[in-house]
Amino acid sequence: MDYGDVCINYSKAFFDKNGLPVPASLDDLKKPEYKDMLVVENPASSSPGLAFLLATIAQYGDPGYIAYWKDLRQNGVVVVDGWETAYYTNFSGSSGHGPQPMVVSYASSPAAEVAYATTPLTDSPIGTIMAPGTCFRQVEFVGILNGTKNRDLAEKFVDFMLDVPFQEDMPLNMFVYPVNTQAKLPDVFLKYAQVATSPAAAPANLDAMRDTWINAWTQAVLH
User: Fold this and answer.
1) What pLDDT was estimated at residue 4?
2) Which of 42, 104, 141, 181 would you label with 79, given CA atoms 20 to 30 Å apart?
3) DSSP string covering 58-80, please?
């Protein structure tokens, strides 16, 4: 039905003010110059948190991802339960008051900042790290339950959700991308949102291993 990329967003003002280069890879996040600067969501309670965990598994393998997260922990990564807390409380690029200048969010977040700004903006205050393997593509589906007694109506609803009017309405309401190639994107998406050209590949054994990976992450990062 739609898709979007979970990536790391950063505060442009922070990096400009401090003369720091923006991290260009997952490895860069372990460097001492970025200590205490990243807030992530718990993958056990947050879909973007899980997406970012999967990006690290795709990059470092299993069990290599555990060593990577232990390094992030040593470098002061902050973990919160959900996206709203990470983005609106911890992240300095949105509220301007949080302690972390980097957050796991979405490649469409820069567009959202402009779209919802109380004072019109000519540029987004946040950027997105788009290096290969640093983003994970989330795809949302719509389906019909097997055995439904309302098959015809369900099919009409699926068709409605995939048709151009609904698909064009989604970006500014859900800040995701339409899958219907005939749907036009709003200007704010064209100017400020991005699509990852090399997102991390979803592990082939994701369904079977998801809970195991989350549990191992919990032991390594939260205990």
Assistant:
1) 97
2) 141
3) HHH-TTHHHHHHHHHHHTT-EEE
